Amino acid sequence: xxxxxxxxxxxxxxxxxxxxxxxxxxxxxxxxxxxxxxxxxxxxxxxxxxxxxxxxxxxxxxxxxxxxxxxxxxxxxxxxxxxxxxxxxxxxxxxxxxxxxxxxxxxxxxxxxxxxxxxxxxxxxxxxxxxxxxxxxxxxxxxxxxxxxxxxxxxxxxxxxxxxxxxxxxxxxxxxxxxxxxxxxxxxxxxxxxxxxxxxxxxxxxxxxxxxxxxxxxxxxxxxxxxxxxxxxxxxxxxxxxxxxxxxxxxxxxxxxxxxxxxxxxxxxxxxxxxxxxxxxxxxxxxxxxxxxxxxxxxxxxxxxxxxxxxxxxxxxxxxxxxxxxxxxxxxxxxxxxxxxxxxxxxxxxxxxxxxxxxxxxxxxxxxxxxxxxxxxxxxxxxxxxxxxxxxxxxxxxxxxxxxxxxxxxxxxxxxxxxxxxxxxxxxxxxxxxxxxxxxxxxxxxxxxxxxxxxxxxxxxxxxxxxxxxxxxxxxxxxxxxxxxxxxxxxxxxxxxxxxxxxxxxxxxxxxxxxxxxxxxxxxxxxxxxxxxxxxxxxxxxxxxxxxxxxxxxxxxxxxxxxxxxxxxxxxxxxxxxxxxxxxxxxxxxxxxxxxxxxxxxxxxxxxxxxxxxxxxxxxxxxxxxxxxxxxxxxxxxxxxxxxxxxxxxxxxxxxxxxxxxxx
Length: 664
Known about the structure:
Elements: H1 3-26, H2 34-50, E1 74-76, E2 85-87, H3 90-103, E3 109-115, E4 118-125, E5 128-134, E6 140-142, H4 145-148, E7 164-172, H5 175-187, H6 196-204, H7 209-214, E8 218-228, H8 235-244, E9 254-256, H9 259-272, E10 280-287, H10 290-296, E11 306-310, E12 315-327, E13 333-344, E14 347-353, H11 357-363, E15 370-376, E16 380-388, E17 410-412, E18 417-419, H12 426-437, H13 449-457, H14 472-475, H15 483-495, H16 501-507, H17 515-525, H18 528-533, H19 536-540, H20 547-557, H21 560-571, E19 593-597, H22 605-614, E20 618-620, E21 629-632, H23 638-646, E22 649-651, H24 653-663
Parallel strand pairs: 2-11, 19-20, 19-21, 21-22
Antiparallel strand pairs: 1-6, 3-9, 3-10, 4-5, 4-7, 7-8, 10-11, 12-13, 12-15, 13-14, 15-16, 17-18
Helix pairs in contact: 1-2, 3-9, 12-13, 16-17
């Protein structure tokens, strides 16, 4: 095929694939099967490889492209991305309607589901998607264009090449994808995302677009920020225009006249929310007329022409029948409440984690109690309290011995947790191997929980070193393995031998030593021999470490069983090498005292602390006159209030990461 013919065929393929993308991801009505789509995509990719001059940034093949980002650059918003005032009752909604009618008597209202996700801006110039950014503080966000390209319902080219179109939407993670991701994180004993909103935020801020692509994010567009080449009189017109352009616009919206119609629409959306495949946390009520919006104006952060009605969390009573105790990778004994099945936030629920003995004692939870359960973030079940005790009930105490191996449990005072100290405990071993093989550890593709169970049941492995002695012939004796799958797993295990030292240390699953801590450790010492010979005091001096982390690491590396495992891993051919990274000192945080408060969108408290300390900051647990910055997340309490009263600079997680990454 010559270049002229190739150019013609490439144009045909791109048009077809974009149409099929629109049908599948936006309309939910595909006209071709997956195989046909895949074959066309392969044909297009082959032609673009053969004729590189035909490659284009709006090609469907570019959905996951580009290198991992070192940081996210700042993006000033030409049109402020405002937040909405929250209201929690129909009385406040009625007052809002009355205010609008007083200033704009002909007021109509667009009533829309409020998607629980992450707000972003999409900019199209001459029809091409050129820039995607987060909301940030409303005035300045972050450039996440490469990651937004991986969201299949975002068209890379609009159906009309207008000079400029900027749309605002909400990126979210569908419930099914969130639950699958959370199960994967729990299986590898990683810190699971708390809810789909945090999962969406964390996934969109991945530095590698390929990781974002795997998360299955989606988007709904809910506002036209600016447009050149068209004019509109109502919000409803703008949404219909955006839909015509090929964007996925917020569904379930309606136009209302009176306050009662608005109330009815809110109730209708609320009744339907549990049947949706995504989370909504409320309803947005907006003035429909655009000139009315101009007339009503806005405060510094919120428009006066729109509000968000927030749904209260659903709570139900049920009877606690049993408390099961599981054993985690680090030996933690985790109690789980088993109760009569209830329908909560649209799904049947019969279990909820009770965390530890202190949680059970504080709430005086007993078997047979009538308890109150809700779903945190409408997803994760949690026990709020015990409403009443059953007759003759007694306070519940966790078992003194491991329910799996029978070893005497030991209380960890630092974490208020009971642990099984037996590292050969079958429950621990299974989860240790799953963690060892995880993507962010040794990245042994294909070695999931089910295969680990099969290997242990067949006594083919007894520890992580045993994985490197597995043969194809042994795997073929297990149910489900064929010649090709057995070869692939053996190859994946062999490939993991060259993983860098920080990944090996993280894969060992040492308590309190996560990915960042393992990297800091290797950056400081440079080799395993240096780490192994370091004292507790020397380890504790690492920026980002402390006495607890140092003690965990030192104790683990001097445990005879861990030393034996490490000897076997080296004998199995693991290189355990590390190449130090070039780092730039972060002057912004060096020598500063920082306090963390509230739940951060994407980082755990320990991860944020480690990164701040690595940047030279001192992380304190209390706010005082010596505090330089407070990093505040969701549900920040008295620390935030005190910081504001003292005039201390308050940063969001996004701002903190921006300062950290600018130096990295």
